[in-house]
Amino acid sequence: MEEPATSTCMSGNFDGSMQSTIEKLIDIPVHQKIITNLVALFNYFDIYAPKMELLYKIVTVLRFFQLFGGALMASNTTVFLPGSLTYNTISIMSVFFHLIPCQYRNGIEYLALFALNTILFLFAIYLLIASSYYKKTSKVSKVTTYVLPVFMATGPFLFLPILAEFCGEILSGAISGNHPVKITEYIAVAESLVITVFYLWLLFQTFTTTLIFRSCSFKSLEGGPQNKLLLGTIIVTFICALNIHLTKGTSVAVISISVIVYAYLLPLFTGVALLSIYITKV
């Protein structure tokens, strides 16, 4: 049973050696080297990382809440009257997709952004160092084999929509003038934009780019649906958050855009859901 994994690893080592030789002869751009290193590392994890089917199922449920959580416009004070039973109920529900209840969120969004950005930044450095080390030595520590796969299964897919939510809320307050925005909040939004772009690039170019089935939440046979579901969740979440402190008239435009995004994602979501059920039964 060990022979296929060993053969794959040996093949990966040989390919890595060939790649190193080619890089010495050709000036390869830095971003291409990073992509190559990360792809090799993720392929290694596919073989040697622990199976995490329970974690994938949990993340799938949370991503489902995030996908449709933005449409609830949970924090929108023009939709739900603060202090009402409906507002408090939706506020509690928002923990499942935006982490912090709506009623405790105002004024601390930038702190949440700084915290999440720090976590994502540190893991980005960890990924780059681990992939570079694997490229040079063909070795990965046991701790890394556990920690990074768990992070890749959870962090980017769950944290990026939360960044979009809090950024939208801050910008909504700035546009409406209802909540004066401090310079630290603008810095937090700028950091979040950079982090989001980096991780979307990382996911689209490496993690979801594979010729074999790679286990993940919202199971799909290839990476395209994963990318579109994540990007769609981020877009809907940001648009709905941007409408939080604006007038009721803008809600029509927001809902219209959200409907278009959901209509685009529905066939993908249906196909992914059916595949998930099939794989679970098998």
From TrEMBL:
Superkingdom of source: Eukaryota
Transmembrane segments: 54-72, 79-100, 112-134, 146-166, 186-208, 229-246, 252-279
Keywords: Membrane, Transmembrane, Transmembrane helix
Protein name: Uncharacterized protein
